[in-house]
Design brief:
Low-confidence stretches: none
CATH class of the largest domain: Alpha Beta
Number of domains: 3
Radius of gyration: 30 Å
Strand order of the largest sheet: 3-2-1-4-5
Structural class: alpha/beta
Mean pLDDT: 88
Number of helices: 22
CATH architecture of the largest domain: 2-Layer Sandwich
Strand content: 5-15%
Helix content: 55-70%
Order of helices and strands: HHHHHHEEEHEHEHHEEHHHHHHHHHHHH
CATH superfamily of the largest domain: Ribonuclease H-like superfamily/Ribonuclease H
Number of strands: 7
Oligomer: single chain
Length: 472
């Protein structure tokens, strides 16, 4: 057993020996270390590492991607767990070769149907430079990922042209509204098909609401201090410290006014959330995109009326929120304009009240479904032909760039380990992600390639890079 572990330390050998001879892994490692030390003492020099085969590449790449390991971490794992002594140069060479294969694979991706694309930048440690990412909205497949480049319209334009040359047809795009992306889209695809991400607006609204709530809490704490000061004076007790700037009545009035502003903004933000849902049911139908825009304009007008009641610092925050929503409003409602025609047609066939009922059920599909397919089985048979297309359209509505945010959360741990990711390393991550089977969630058991119905979706990610004998 010791001879086998020292002469041919392939992946899985220790586990196989342990099962065959009923010996624990720790005991086998201890025996191997003792045998290695005895041989080194007998021969008078260290043992030369055995000739490495393709199995080492399999182990190195798996450790690199699955465990977010550094090159030195991979070297330590191989030495401690498998008794394999591998130089850093050899590890770098394996990763570089696999990265070249991954770049080739990534450049040969094809899309059988037009795809909705999520675009975003992930800033690096280099000032003014970022990783550019293009991700499929519905499947999460990585179409392109680029090492740090200047964040400008030219960089994005070149990337979008590259995707066009690759044969990827764009059904529409979605992003957080960055200026460089807008500039590139105006030259390549046109901004009329570009959706503004609603969750970034919700995030800005949540930040403003948080500042208002903290201001109210600060006024509440100040009121308690003034109350204690007034009670002490009433009892003839002299307290240390500065006297409060406001009287008890003035502070109560200030707190009441701040609470009014905070609650008013909270209500208006909730209305904004509702109006930017995929579908907004009414008792007698659905809210169209035109009516949504009118309602959002009303919300913004009411927000403007709250501005004079806030403190000067918070006035600027409320004005910033209203400005952000107004600038993004035309592109934010693109998803709703795309749904208008289908919803109107369904209303003519089924009736407005029936469509409103379907919308109510779809918004609660997590409880009634849990998916639209399950929900469809609960609908009367006469409605199903029209309802299936309507539910599918609501499912496929694009209003957020969450897919690219998910991809960037995968890149972030590797970026923390390696500080900077090369094109080869990014491509390796993309190939792994595109082949990865989701262990849970709504896409459980499917990879991004399978959700895109790609012909290469059945392969293991290392098999796709030419390590077929090992990946099998």
């Amino acid at each position: 057993m010791v001879s086998q572990m020292l002469a041919n330390p392939v992946h899985g050998l220790v586990s196989q020996l342990g099962r065959s001879h009923q010996v624990s892994r720790q005991t086998l490692y201890r025996w191997a270390a003792t045998g290695r030390q005895a041989l080194e003492e007998a021969l008078g020099h260290q043992l030369l590492p055995p000739k490495q085969n393709e199995a080492i590449s399999f182990v190195v790449l798996t450790l690199l991607i699955e465990t977010h390991a550094s090159y030195r971490g991979i070297q330590t794992c191989l030495r401690e767990l498998h008794g394999v002594h591998l130089s850093l140069g050899r590890i770098v060479g394996i990763v570089k070769e696999a990265g070249q294969r991954a770049r080739t694979w990534l450049s040969q991706q094809q899309a059988g149907t037009p795809r909705a694309l999520a675009l975003d930048e992930q800033y690096s440690s280099q000032r003014g430079k970022a990783y550019l990412n293009v991700i499929d909205v519905h499947s999460g497949q990585v179409w392109a990922t680029v090492p740090p480049v200047e964040v400008d319209g030219e960089s994005w334009t070149l990337l979008l042209w590259y995707l066009q040359e690759q044969g990827i047809s764009c059904l529409g795009t979605v992003s957080d509204g960055g200026r460089a992306i807008q500039e590139a889209l105006s030259q390549v695809h046109g901004e009329e098909q570009h959706q503004r991400d609603v969750w970034h607006l919700f995030h800005v609204a949540a930040q403003v609401q948080g500042r208002l709530d903290r201001a109210v809490q600060a006024e509440q704490d100040r009121l308690l201090t003034i109350q204690r000061q007034a009670d002490a004076l009433a009892n003839g007790i002299r307290r240390r410290g500065r006297r409060p700037k406001a009287t008890l009545a003035e502070q109560e009035a200030c707190l009441s006014q701040m609470s009014y502003v905070a609650e008013g903004v909270r209500y208006l933000c909730q209305e904004l959330h509702t109006l930017l849902e995929v579908v907004v049911p009414l008792p007698d139908g659905l809210l169209t995109s035109e009516h949504r825009q009118g309602e959002i304009v009303t919300v913004l007008d009411l927000l403007d009326e709250l501005v004079p009641s806030a403190t000067p610092a918070l006035q600027r925050q409320l004005q910033m929120l209203a400005k952000q929503v107004r600038l993004a409003l035309p592109q934010t409602l693109l998803f709703a304009r795309r749904l208008d025609a289908m919803q109107e047609q369904a209303s003519r066939v089924l009736g407005s009240e029936a469509v409103a009922l379907l919308a109510w059920a779809w918004l609660r599909r997590a409880v009634l479904g849990p998916t639209s397919e399950h929900l469809l089985q609960s609908i009367r048979p006469a409605w199903r032909a029209v309802a299936s297309g309507l539910l599918a359209a609501w499912d496929q509505a694009v209003r957020a760039s969450s897919a690219v945010e998910n991809w960037q959360s995968i890149v972030r741990p590797h970026l923390a380990v390696h500080r900077k990711l090369s094109a080869g390393m990014l491509s390796l991550l993309a190939v792994w992600h595109n082949h990865r089977i989701a262990p849970r969630g709504p896409h459980e058991g499917l990879s991004p390639l399978q959700r895109t119905e790609s012909p290469s979706s059945a392969h293991h990610w290392l098999a796709a890079l030419g390590y077929s004998a090992l990946a099998a």
